[in-house]
Specification:
The relative contact order is 0.14. The protein has six helices and no strands. The longest helix has 21 residues. By secondary structure, it is an all-alpha fold. Helix content is 61%, strand content 0%. The N and C termini lie far apart (52 Å).
């Protein structure tokens, strides 16, 4: 028998998004970056992020946009910022959502981070690189 609350609700998405960005705004590392972009426009951003997560989690189709292009417009964005974003996001998700939903939304956020980092010119974070690791030589196409 399926769990009665196996899917996130719009109300939970609202709580997650608003709680998360409340934490972002007071964060010493991410707060200034976000404030620079959204000063005076926080309500619109929060509404857009609720639409985004509704589309991701519930396939509502409300979000219209391109997250990759949006993040490309943030020149100071580095891998360490993604590390902090995920840490705060995970904290809030686990505080406000049932465990199975928090794990689901956190996993999706981690996959989004991987996609963004693959396509953005960011500086790797110390946790994501191994100084002893060498890149594999390119494969021949023959």
């Amino acid at each position: 028998m399926p769990i009665a609350d196996s899917r996130i609700t719009e109300e939970q998405i609202h709580t997650l998004v608003h709680g998360f960005y409340g934490r972002i705004r007071t964060d010493g590392e991410l707060g200034p970056i976000f404030e620079k972009r959204f000063a005076g426009r926080w309500d619109a951003h929060l509404s857009r992020m609720c639409d985004f997560w509704s589309t991701v989690m519930l396939a509502s189709g409300r979000y219209r946009g391109n997250p990759l292009e949006s993040h490309r417009r943030i020149p100071e964005l580095r891998s360490v910022h993604f590390d902090r974003w995920l840490a705060l996001f995970g904290e809030v998700a686990h505080e406000v959502l049932p465990l199975h939903i928090a794990r689901d939304v956190e996993g999706r956020a981690q996959r989004m981070r991987a996609v963004l980092e693959r396509h953005l010119p960011t500086t790797p974070s110390p946790a994501s690189t191994d100084p002893g690791e060498t890149a594999a030589p390119p494969r021949s196409r023959g």
